[in-house]
Amino acid sequence: MFTFAPFFLDFYMTNFEIQGLNPEILKAVKDLGFETPMPVQARVIPAMLESDADIIALAQTGTGKTAAFGLPLINMADASRSEVQVLVLCPTRELCLQITSDLNDFCKYLPDLRVLPVYGGSSIEKQIGALKKGVHFVVATPGRMLDLIRRKAVNLGTVRNVVLDEADEMLNMGFIEDLNDILKMVPKERRTLLFSATMPDRVAGIAENYMRSPLEIVVGARNSSSENVKHLCYTVSSKDKYNALKRVVDYNPSIYGIVFCRTKRETGEIAEKLIRDGYNAEALHGDLSQAQRDYVMQKFRIGNIKLLVATDVAARGLDVSNLTHIINYNLPDDIETYNHRSGRTGRAGKTGVSVAIAGLKDKSKLKQIEKNIAKSFEHRDVPKGRDICEKQLFSLIERMERVDVDNKEIDSYLPVIFKKLEWLDKEDIVRRFVSLEFNRFLNYYKDAEDLEAARMESADGERKKRGRRAEKAEREGRSEKFNDEQKSVRKAEKGYTRLHLNAGKKDGLYPNILIELINQTECGNQIKVGKIDLTKRDTYFEIRSDQAKMLLKDLKNVFYKGRKVTVSAV
Ligand code: AMP
């Protein structure tokens, strides 16, 4: 088994500018809106700029790793030499295109640098033609790269840097032989950079065979899922699975996620049922043509589809960084796959939820997963009809409160509308407006029975109870049962400190925005946020008492919508 070289050289940067990236690159980074380096960038960029050492970075997709290797490689590239200097190998066509597009963004002000994506399923002749013209970066899937090597269409003898991106996925997909054959063609004196979400033995094997005393950079815990992901489990009998899925979705009105199924057939069936039941869902599986898959993925990427029902294989190349939920309609056979699935949420500093809809027979698998991700599932009862209606109702009201009102456009219609509604008083109008959207849920859940959770014995009972308590607390914290005055004087939970921030709903500050503000601070990723109470003008929120001092310090200079806000202990 491969063991890592200790990481003595600890480079770290807090600002893109202090590490000597070219002004053209800094300008492109600025255009992209990147203000501060993400953790993997803070470690990898200076390490690459200051030494020639090989690097292993354990980081999930969505952590900013493309810029971590892309920016320094572009910085070092010599556009005047028309030869392949960098080879990036990645598992899928989609990732290949994504990396190419990111690299092109980074070298936007270096027009002489050329980046070429090569992947299966598109014209090899065109790729050969482009290679002949001369490119500096080749981003390739292993199969197509090998094909090009065999046709002698590419010279890798000039490559000085090789990036193996999503190395674990490449090995999962059976590319080991291809990788071995490709790496033989690249000069030994090259630098190798390996990025992987996990470090199974097979990836360690690659590192041992092809890398020299690599620096190891770990972002987040090794082989464990992101800190920002909460893992929930609903245990139901198989007949209730689909209804449980619907309830989980209904209980999360702003859901944007992937529902993972085990087979193509199941994927199609579940998507079809969801669409029939009025959900904004679509299926993604291997029986679709490439063009159909691209179409569905694009719709999902831009948010036109809120629920993608997919098999693991079909979802491989999909890279979306702001998913709120991953739903395991079936737990995967391979434990590591759960890690990959759940790693698709909680990215780029955001929080996410990974839901397992499990059966009784899954008990030991759940335990294995918990061991693998080094976290426990929170066991919950499937949301009850009443709870769902309440959530939906408040979500509707919140959306109404937050909606942008274009007074100029709307004003001309108002006199007629007011006249037409003259016969209704304010309460009536609210009632009717709410019913318009809300009746679907009311009708569906009016007489719906609670889904009986399949019983887990012994130790899980306590966890379930804890889960229920947590759920209740969450509900109470977010529900509008307390008026603004009561919220301002509420006591903190035991072990938590209550903080006050001088902006509230009127300023457009909502829990997700508060969490973003916290995440942006230096200590943000470690902070455990408890209850959040929003009033019109203020926000009260609770964080673990041992973290209060640190967060207050980091929040000293926080700006929201261009104005400095103040945070203090209550
Ligand atoms: P990646 O892991 O490379 O796929 O990046 C995930 C997402 O984070 C992409 O949408 C990037 O554009 C974005 N990103 C990368 N670096 C930064 C940064 N320093 N600040 C803000 N966003 C970033």
Brief description of this entry?
The protein has about 575 residues and is of the alpha/beta class. The strands form four sheets. It has a seven-stranded parallel beta sheet, sandwiched between helices. It has a seven-stranded parallel beta sheet with strand order 10-11-9-12-13-8-14, sandwiched between helices. Helix 5 (about 125-135) links the parallel strand 3 (about 115-120) and strand 4 (about 135-140).
Q: How many beta-strand segments?
A: 20
Present as ligands are: adenosine monophosphate
> Which second-level CATH architecture of one domain applies?
3-Layer(aba) Sandwich
Cα gyration radius (Å): 26 Å
Strand content: 15-25%
Number of helices: 23
Describe it:
The protein is an alpha/beta fold and 570 residues long. Among the domains are: 196 residues, Rossmann fold (3-Layer(aba) Sandwich); 60 residues, no CATH class; 90 residues, 2-Layer Sandwich (Alpha-Beta Plaits), CATH 3.30.70.330. It is 43% helix and 15% strand. The protein is built from 23 helices and 20 strands. The strands form four sheets. It has a seven-stranded parallel beta sheet, sandwiched between helices. Strands 10-11-9-12-13-8-14 form a seven-stranded parallel beta sheet, with helices on both faces. α2 packs parallel to α3. It is globular, with a radius of gyration of 26 Å. The protein starts with 22 loop residues before the first helix and ends with a strand. The protein binds adenosine monophosphate (AMP). The site of adenosine monophosphate has 14 residues, from α3.
